[in-house]
């Protein structure tokens, strides 16, 4: 049976993730509150954040910044999670 969650991204019930997608407490919180579709939206946003900020996931400070963006994107906490200032989405792209 598919696990359902009340997704904080989609604002509706949807199919949940199979396992926590990130280590620690943040990963558990995402697992409990974000759907697979919501996670896929985050992955699109993450790509933009990494590219626009020139981040590498091998850098511990970059991981800390990404986690701040995760908290902002999923839970509206802090000043992160939005598209980078001045970013213009390509025609037909999602925000």
Termini Cα gap: 32 Å
Q: Structural class given helices, strands, pairing?
A: mainly alpha
User: What is the H/E string?
Assistant: EEHHH
Please tally the helical runs, counting DSSP H or I stretches of 4 or more residues. 3
Q: At CATH's second level, what is the architecture?
A: Orthogonal Bundle
Determine the CATH topology.
YggX-like
The Cα radius of gyration reads 14 Å
State the fourth-level CATH superfamily: Fe(II) trafficking protein YggX
Quick one: CATH class? Mainly Alpha
pLDDT averaged over residues: 89
Percentage of residues in helical conformation: 40-55%
Count of individual domains: 1
Keywords: Iron
Protein name: Probable Fe(2+)-trafficking protein
Family: Belongs to the Fe(2+)-trafficking protein family.
GO molecular function: iron ion binding
Overview of this protein structure:
A two-stranded antiparallel sheet has the order 1-2. It has a single domain (4-75), classed as YggX-like (Orthogonal Bundle). 46% of the residues lie in helices and 8% in strands. The longest helix has 18 residues, at 36-53. Helix 2 (36-53) crosses helix 3. The chain has helices at 24-33, 36-53, 60-75; strands at 4-7, 12-15. The relative contact order is 0.15. Strand 1 and strand 2 (12-15) form a beta hairpin. The protein starts with a strand and ends in a 20-residue tail after the last helix. The mean pLDDT is 89. It contains three helices and two strands. With 95 residues, it is mostly helical.
